[in-house]
Amino acid sequence: MDILISASILNSDLANLGNEIFRAEKAGADMIHLDVMDGVFTDSITFGDYVVGKLRNCTSLPLDTHLMVNDPTKLIPLFVNAGSDIITIHEESKCDVAECLKLIRGFGKRTGLSINPETEAERVFPYLELCDVVLIMSVKPGAGGQKFKQESLLKINAVRREADRLGLKLDIEVDGGINQTTAPLVFSAGANVAVAGTYLFKADDMRAAMDSIRNVV
Ligand code: DX5
Ligand code: ZN
User: Fold this and answer.
1) Is 43 an active-site residue?
2) Is residue 147 lining ligand 1, measured as CB closer than 6 Å?
């Protein structure tokens, strides 16, 4: 499977977001990762569909929208209209997970299901056929720049084994604390998509940082 990098703008210069996305695109990002937080599921609030809709005009890269919200049900159509390409919801959200995934697919968008560090990998198994992406959180959701949790490696491996057993071509994406050192660990555990924020946006040379993640395989 190809290795893909989804550049998370959370710790970028948010006052110059359009330019930061342009920088990530030029440096070779495959997707732009947008962390939507509602202040309930997470402590902080970031941005919503209105801002995502404006960012749609800044890039032709897929918008990888990570909904860290308490109930995504009513928000899904808003992010579809805003131009999101992947819409990822959380298993821990207060929603009917299967219904939300079907709703996203019904709009012709790619589906993602995420689990927090304390949630067992097996919790996504019942939904794998409805998922294009499983997003394993390797930090507590809510902030960029945290340290990668090694426990996520076993979970990546468990999800990859189950997807293979079912014959599913699933993207496994890992989010939080990805850098030159942790990227090889997640790829060899079975992930094929790395979300990287701080490591890319705070690098002196973003392209070199991007390559250092991609070329470890
Ligand atoms: C955390 C977010 C991540 C975060 C990753 O709640 O979901 O996308 O921005 O950022 P880094 O790469 O800084 O850990
Ligand atoms: Zn994220």
Assistant:
1) no
2) no
pLDDT of residue 215: 85
3-state helix, strand, coil in the chain (%, to 5): 40, 20, 40
What is the Cα–Cα distance from 174 to 5, expressed in whole angstroms? 10
pTM for the whole structure: 0.97
C-alpha span between 114 and 121 (Å, rounded):
10
State whether the beta carbon of 202 lies less than 6 angstroms from ligand 1: no
The answer to whether residue 217 scores a pLDDT higher than 60 is no
Strand 133-137 versus strand 110-115 pairing type: parallel
CA distance 6 to 176: 11
Torsion of CA 77, 82, 85, 88, to 10 degrees: -50
CB atoms near residue 3 (< 10 Å): 16
